[in-house]
Amino acid sequence: MDLQQIKCFLSSIYYDKNEMSICVDINGERLKEQDSLQLLFVERDTKSEISFPLIENTKRFFYEAKIDLVFYRDFFVKHLFWDVYISYTDGEEIKKKRLLSNDQEIELLYEYYKELDKLIIPYTTNKGNFSLKIKEDAFITKIDQAYLTNMGNLHIEGYAVYPKENNIISQSVLTKTIIFRKGKDENIEELRFLAKNVGRQDLTEEYGKQLERDFDCSGFQIDIPLEEIYQLNTEKSLYKLYIEFSSVVDGIEMVRESSAIKFFPTISKYHSDPLIVKVKNKKKKIELKRTKKVRNFILKIDDYTTKKEIIKNVKKPWRNFRRSGKLKRIYKKCFKLIGKFPADKKLIMFESFAGKQFSCNPRAIYEYINANYPNYKLYWSIDKKYEKNFVNKDIKYIKRFSIKWLFYMARARYWVINSRLPLWIPKPKHTIYLQTWHGTPLKRLAADMDEVHMPGTTTAKYKRNFHRESAKWDYLVSPNAYSSEIFSRAFAFDKEMIESGYPRNDILYTDNNLEAIQDLKKRYEIPLDKKVILYAPTWRDDQFYGKGRYKFDLELNLKQLQEEVGDRYIVILRMHYLIAENFDLGPYEGFAYDFSNHEDIRELYLVSDILITDYSSVFFDYANLKRPMIFYVYDFESYRDKLRGFYFDFEKKAPGPLVKTTSEVIETIIDFEKSNFKLSDGFNEFYNKFCYLESGNSSEKVVKRILEKE
Predict the structure, then answer these.
(1) Mean pLDDT over the full length of the chain
(2) Using 50, 70 and 90 to split pLDDT, how confident is the model at 434?
(3) Which residue, 177, 328, 524, 709, is most buried by CB atoms nearer than 10 A?
(4) Phi, psi of 345 (to 5 degrees)
């Protein structure tokens, strides 16, 4: 039987002393013995696995796995997240299927290891799956009801549990405060309201008895006069909701605050009609919302006009139509039709990193053509969310997927692009597609990858779609012979390779002088009296929030770095454009600077004295400057063996030392100082293999090859 066609969901969790039992319902099906059903736990980052047999309970028609939490304690708590699957055999193949959660309050069935100060908490993911999280501290909250009353109040009720203290706090000493908060950093505003404690014997009966826990004191209820909130707002406001949990035990005050409160899987309990109120002769609209992906509770206050409501009601069906996929199909047909019109032979369209930046090889090529071929019409294809990166630059741009963009892209003679286009975009026969790519490969690419760990795809699908895109390329820019060989194989590219060096690196030769570097430092307010460390790591395929949004934990200890070298260095952070993090550098003001949104990394190369990176291709470009590099590879074995794999022996051939701790980073910086920043012994060999084509004229080589031939 193929379980892929059957819903498998959590039936219940219960405890017997130190043993956790997880019961699974397989849609009422009874499987054959040879299916070898297992409950499989997979650690989210390292992909470590552990499985337990699922035994059929013939009386109650579910399958049950028993886990000894004492015996397996150390294995579970050394990681952060465990995703739960059903593993089974299908013929000779072992398959797995994600286990769905249920609508129960499963987070209340936590296990607390007091001696380790660790919690194991079952929970439901945003996608409705069952997982475990390991926490040192946690706050479990739930809103049962939230609605706007006709009296102008916001009614909220639910529960809040702090697991570590749950058994010692009595209702008489417990205080719960509802916090409405908006803004970030220095602009945070908050409003606080004291909630009423409400007994929750229902939770004790359902979830507390088997673990001898008392949740009677955990409930809360509050009616908030909305006038106290909307009178303070002169513009659109979005408030997130938090709960502060405070008490005094044995004379010691304890205060804890929850993260922004989420609610799922249904919205029916939380939905209410918006309120329209009048404030100082202006109408305001107050409504309860929840964020789409994270599902945080939101109180939204906005100006209300009849015109605004009409526009909103018109836009909603249009937005739904656009998301349905019908518009894309119509758009594709129009693209094909317009693509049959004669080409505009002087029109060139540029795009960098899906329209997010004015950068990389397309920028260098654009600047060369703009300076030397004035009779060409040059336009940039941009993502409207990143329009700020293109204004005030004296360049012409068109918003991606607009009607104007459709006509210009379909009639352009040339496309100059450094990453993949959406697969549905057809290339007209008259268009010359110059793919510049965006790096010398260290990590395995496309067809050379054994496994793909990115969200929203499989290994086979990723490779198939990549080759469908690369089949459209007419030319591919390569920085060296090493890259040409890999590109040809990994991209299945059999057309013309322009082996010219990377155009984007021309500036590293033309502007590598004291005057240009000092001008850059002054422009971006970088201290002139200190040396500059550039930290530019790459992204990890398996660490993501969603498709195209990768997360990154800053393993480099900035505090330690500041204490040791902050008197003579500053650090510039430049994260990969796919990374979605925003780092709080407030404690490191004057030492650490976040330049992640600085589009032209070439300028950061020029102002820096040392590069710290990991597996990012930035080090191939930086090598042109012949300056020291440090490779901070704290997860080297995992990255090398599990995620990507390398094209050459990185340990032996990297043009700088490999280190795994911040202490080793600091030691290496001090060693560089003692040697007067001498380069590693193998640097010249590396430079001669990867940088030999670059001398400041790669843009000219590419442009002449394309424009003069075509």
Answers:
(1) 84
(2) very high
(3) 177
(4) -70, -10
